[in-house]
Specification:
Immunoglobulin-like, single chain, about 25% strand, alpha+beta, 2 helices, four-stranded mixed β-sheet
Length: about 190
């Protein structure tokens, strides 16, 4: 009886240790700022997109772990070159003359712990439209409405949507199943007596 209790207590302690150790390992690098910022309305087209993360990123030699797209409502990608990883930041150049409208930034990087991390956010461009003088004067004067101006600043972006394996959850589930198995064996041993 003493051996069974000791084994059960040992299993519970081991399960707790696994869960405590696995929790910090699951913390991937988070995006801390972006330029343009999430939901920012720009008055001119940006030349690049810069994402800054909470830790240095891994840069694979073939750059296969890093990707970024900046697409408009029609699905056209406005990225003009490969992403460049510099310590904790990823930068992509953009094509010139981006038209007014909404843009979706979708990104994927390799976190400092070696796991892929990805996410997305949106920004928009509302540059003032130059009005050409008309050949015939209009009967009523028109008023030009200017959208609010916004300066490109680095502000926190929304938390990324991670698409990596839920290892702590799987480990915890395995430990719970192991404990349940030990309990079943203990109960079966008691019934045999």
């Amino acid at each position: 009886m003493f051996r069974i209790r000791t084994a059960l207590v040992g299993a519970v302690v081991a399960a707790a240790a696994v869960l405590v150790v696995a929790a910090p390992a699951s913390a991937h690098d988070q995006i801390v700022s972006s330029t343009p910022a999430a939901d920012e309305q720009l008055t001119s087209a940006p030349e690049q997109v810069v994402l800054t993360f909470s830790n240095n990123l891994l840069s694979l030699s073939d750059n296969s772990g890093t990707a970024m797209t900046v697409t408009d409502a029609n699905g056209e990608d406005w990225v003009s070159g490969a992403p460049v990883v510099t310590a904790d930041a990823v930068t992509v150049p953009l094509k010139p003359d981006m038209p007014n409208g909404a843009y979706d930034v979708t990104w994927k990087v390799v976190s400092s712990d070696g796991h892929p991390t990805s996410g997305e956010y949106s920004f928009s461009i509302a540059a003032p439209v130059d009005q050409a003088p008309s050949a015939t004067p209009s009967a009523t004067p028109s008023q030009s409405v200017q959208p609010p101006t916004s300066q490109a600043t680095q502000t926190p972006a929304p938390a990324p949507t991670e698409q990596s394996a839920p290892w702590p959850l799987l480990i915890g589930l395995g430990v719970v199943l192991l404990i349940a198995l030990v309990v079943v064996i203990v109960i079966a041993a008691r019934r045999r007596r």
